[in-house]
Amino acid sequence: MSGLGALLTAIVTPFSASAKAKSGKPALDEEAFVALHQHVIGLGAHGVVACGTTGEASTLDDDEHLRVIELAVQHKPAGSTVVAGVGSNDTWHAVHLTERATELGADALLSVTPYYNRPNRRGIVAHYREVARATDKPILLYNHPGRTGVDLSNDLLAELAQIDGIDGVKQTNDDNLALIDGLVLYTGNDETFGRTLELGGVGGISFASHVAGAAMRRMVDEPEERARIDASLAPLFAALAVAPACTTAKAALVAVGRLASDAQRLPMIEVDDHERAIVRDGLVAAGLLDA
């Protein structure tokens, strides 16, 4: 799974500011997605995670969800990788998405812990056994207790690593950030990207890399400069945390001219003027936007 690359961008899903889907929600902007995919790889990302949290997967219906994965696979730049978000709190829905993303040609799959219903340990293990049976692609577990209500402790991660096909973890609980036998380690928090690399982890699944990918790639390629670059990006990482990641990432992309619209789907909503100013200040501090 380390072959996926050290820097993966948790790519946003662009929506139109005017066009509507049949549901009445803002429509997918497929052209903007393809252009953005090229942009983040051009900055230095080794690949993308499509339809993750930052990709607003929870507001996509299955046809849209699978279309975004299809676009990512069809248009991925040479040498880059695509990880497909396929998690659900319904095991059979997760299995369905896993099967379809596998058929579409994703290089690996990101599977979040079942959320809201908060299964116990035996339920989590049983869930991931079913998901793993549905694919021959490597599976990256996604531990995000702040969103799911359930934490994958390190001893549970070690147990899940015994399931064939489960090869890594995206860890957003910094208290659990550690190497686990049988799993490659990605951080889901930009502020611990450097720390993860120092620990011997593969790298990170990042949303700051939408705009700061060149500097973050240097943290991989130039370890002697890692601490200095990390410190220089700290104001940007803090600024992008002022609102949910999908909203601040889109606001940053609009500010640097890489997206025409930062349209969201409710219940996510665009940043307000105060939050937008904080994002701009973070970009200026990182040297990504003129004052």
Structure description:
The structure is a single chain. By secondary structure, the protein is an alpha/beta fold. It has a single domain, classed as Alpha-Beta Barrel (TIM Barrel). The protein contains eleven helices and ten strands. Helix 2 runs parallel beside helix 3 and helix 9 runs antiparallel to helix 11. The longest helix is centred in the C-terminal third of the chain and has 15 residues. It is globular, with a radius of gyration of 18 Å.
Write the layout of secondary structure elements.
Layout: E1 7-10, E2 15-20, E3 26-28, H1 30-43, E4 47-50, H2 62-74, E5 81-85, H3 91-104, E6 108-112, H4 121-133, E7 139-143, H5 145-148, H6 154-160, E8 166-171, E9 184-187, H7 193-199, E10 203-206, H8 209-221, H9 226-240, H10 245-255, H11 273-285
Helix pairs in contact: 1-8, 2-3, 3-4, 8-9, 9-11, 10-11
Short descriptors:
about 290 residues; alpha/beta; TIM Barrel; 8-stranded parallel β-barrel; 11 helices; 10 strands
Which class best fits the helix and strand makeup?
A: alpha/beta
- Can you count the helices? 11
CATH architecture: Alpha-Beta Barrel
Mean pLDDT: 97
List the secondary-structure elements in sequence, H or E.
EEEHEHEHEHEHHEEHEHHHH
Question: Which band does the percent of strand residues land in?
Answer: 15-25%
Classify the helix fraction into a percent range.
40-55%
